[in-house]
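Posting for a labmate who doesn't have an account.
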Amino acid sequence: MFVKEGIIASPGIVIAKALVYEKILVEVNKNKIEDTKSEIVKFQNAIQKSHEQLETIRIKAVSELGEEEAAIFEAHAMVLDDPEFVEGVETEINDNHLGADYAVKIITDRFYDIFDQMDDPYFSARAADIKDVGTRVLHNIQGIVQADLSSLDDDVIIIADDLTPSDTAQMDKKRVMGFATNIGSRTSHTAIMARSLEIPAVLGLCDITKTVKTGDLMVVDGLTGKVCVNPTDEQLESYGKDKQKYLDYLKELEELKDLDAITLDGRKVELVGNIGEPNDVVGVLKNGGVGVGLYRTEFLYMNSDVMPSEEKQFAAYRSVLEAFPNGPVIIRTLDIGGDKKLPYLPMDEELNPFLGLRAIRLCFKEIGLFKIQLRAILRASVYGHAHIMFPMISSITEVRQAKAILMDCMKELDKEQLPYDKGVKIGVMIEIPSAAIAADIISKEVDFFSIGTNDLCQYTLAVDRMNQEVSYLYDPFNPAILRLIKQVTATVADKKETFFSGMCGEMAGDPLAAVLLLGLGLYEFSMSALSIPQIKKIIRSVRYEDAKNIADAALDMETGEEIMDFIQDSMKKLNLNI
């Protein structure tokens, strides 16, 4: 038994067995071999095993996702039967006396390069399929068993160095009970996904993958930031009591579900949810959210092995809009780049990917892709109150460029006589300092702002929030951040009847920041569904005038530490326990 302490990323307590998820790098033997026959047999056995695995996955995918989604695994099986692939590997083994694993790598890489360089998007997308199939065959040749997060038999806590967006997009979410990782922060993708899934998570544990084995019983305590591995009976009993106390607290918050988020002196704000896929609306509704403040549409792309069609996107957006007939649904256009990649959309390696071709910049390069998404959103807009939000905006020029492409899509739909909301609201994420500073200029072209504090902090403070060496500098309470937020909200304060300013960054769901943000003038708070009840309780327990006084005082302070201490003291004086 041992206990480690890390960063609280998502609240709650879970007890389950560990699944250590480590990506295994395949190393092939490049030495010449004499017994080519045994290598051929080894290769053929690996092909057969790969077929069996793919058929198992395909059957599961059909039952859970449908025939269309499962078709990708039939395509993978076809690669295994492709004579050029099979004969190519066997030729390398027989003629060049290569081991089966090295021969498979050579042929896989050769096929990948051919398809990847094709101009046709369909065929270039097949490169990723070939790479995936080749890796599967290699694993089977070498006897490597890689944990498959998409098909889990038991409830588990995922233990990993970190989890990429692709990892979490494909995992069996019904079986994953919690996360514990070596690295990460409260604003990392893993933390955001954990809160979206409403599962406990503790990150930044440094070496948890080395100290925990698959099958170990463990506790992830997202209330204290501790993990306990192979707990004693006494500890299990204690954690069980703590878990029940937390569940009782959540039940108390449920009583606020259908009440407005309104201050004691009558200031009403909107509490809405951040979602990654249509199924997430269940959590938002359950927790009393009145709409969606951030629909991260990139997960629609990341959950697919091919570019999602206009019809598929239309259906997804429509289902979310229909779930909130009276509330706003802010749909962020594709935000790919940085740490989020698509296997079927080749992108060059960049020295600074978070400052490079991502989000709206990528959409301007891939206008065809962008227009498919915009058309789908527009068509869905007649089923609710759709708002379109452009990410990574740095100037009004980009806003105008995006709106021009949107206007082209509207003209196309008019010609096709397809209905859409001609008054659809258009907004931008304020996540680049230049956009915050020029908010008064940008506001002339849009209907709303949503402040993305995750990147706004990263870009303003020049801190990679995933870098453990400098993550201590990442501070949303830094005076510079608060001043930028105030500058944005003050810019549109006199337009409150026609314009609103909200926040969809993780700061919006931080209980410690709630009163401060209220006082800074936010009208909308968008957060993970799990955070909505607690933020609502705080909003309903304070006067707006008191919140303004707290915010004004904080803006005059010199350090984030000073501001944090002041906020904590102020909340105690207001009897706001968090």
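Reply:
Got it, the structure tokens are right above this. The two ends are 30 Å apart (CA to CA).
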